[in-house]
Amino acid sequence: MSETPADTRIPRLAVGCRVRTVSPDEAMLLVPEGALKLKGSASEIISLIDGQRSVEAITIELQQKHATTDSSQITAEVKQFLDKLHARSVLLYND
């Protein structure tokens, strides 16, 4: 059985996008065309995007924090969320 290769891409918010923390479990992602309300795992993921951590590092940190949750579920959630932001040009990757 082969392992999935590490996702070493480093996500960062696009120019003009920023995060405003509303509460520990809620944040607003302010984008040029409006705002996205982020709760739960979305808020946690966005809080870890700092232009330094790779997708893999973000995933590992969340897996350690939520050790009782299936790690493959966390991996899938992180990937799906980041893919959605990337498709909307809110998130870019440093390679």
From TrEMBL:
Pathway listed: Cofactor biosynthesis; pyrroloquinoline quinone biosynthesis
Domain of life: Bacteria
GO MF entries: quinone binding
Keywords, ordered alphabetically: PQQ biosynthesis
Coiled-coil annotated residue ranges, if any: none
Keyword Nucleotidyltransferase in record: no
InterPro entries named in the record: PQQD, PqqD_bac, PqqD_sf
GO biological process terms, semicolon-separated: pyrroloquinoline quinone biosynthetic process
Subunit structure and binding partners: Monomer. Interacts with PqqE.
Protein name: Coenzyme PQQ biosynthesis protein PqqD
